[in-house]
Design goal:
The chain is an alpha/beta fold. It has 4 helices and 3 strands; from the N terminus they run αβαβαβα. It has one domain: HAD superfamily/HAD-like (Rossmann fold, 3-Layer(aba) Sandwich), CATH 3.40.50.1000.
Length: 69
């Protein structure tokens, strides 16, 4: 839907989530993901599902996107 509605490609997108299930679902449809520890699952659980990175807050997320993403 995002691709169609906003013209955003998979290569230019990343899905940010606090849930391991979301990481799996993002991968299944071709999206990269970033785990964030502000919600449902903790760092170790998120890391097990191999997102690009796991961050602790939105400032760290912003820094990652600006520098590495």
């Amino acid at each position: 839907m995002l691709e169609e509605e906003f013209g955003i490609s998979l290569e230019d997108s990343v899905f940010v989530t606090d849930s391991t299930g979301d990481i799996v679902e993002a991968r299944e449809v071709g999206y990269k993901s970033i785990g964030i520890t502000t919600g449902v699952h903790h760092r170790d659980e998120l890391k097990r599902f191999e997102p690009l990175v796991v961050v602790d807050d939105f400032k760290e997320l912003e820094e990652f996107v600006e520098n590495d993403g």
